[in-house]
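In this section we walk through a basic example: taking a raw amino acid sequence and producing a predicted 3D structure, encoded as discrete structure tokens. The instruction is simple. Fold the sequence below.
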Amino acid sequence: MQNHMNDVFKITIVKADTGEPQTVTFTKVAIGVYKFEYTLMIVGEYKVEISVQLNGVGSYYALSTSPFYIQCHVTTTDPRWTIITGSGKNSAIAGIPNTFLVTVFDEGNN
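The resulting token sequence is shown next.
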């Protein structure tokens, strides 16, 4: 029976359109149970590949469900990144319509 005490994982998350790698950390929760954590800052599709080296020896083997894709969506608006543009933001003339644009972004500048 395999006890999985010394299994070693290799995890890569890359932005599908740019190949930009993302940071992944993982911790052992129990024998054979691991917690993987990552924070994506840019909206888009990401490719996740996970492989395991059994007992930390020999070749790495891809998990049967690897690779898979995840979609990162915009989160809540972050006022620190929101911008206001247009002439109406700085001055106005009485009786004439004035305009400005508010463009909202999240913490990842999305």
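Looking at the output, two observations stand out. The chain has a mean pLDDT of 82. Residues 75-110 form one domain. In the next section we compare this with other chains.
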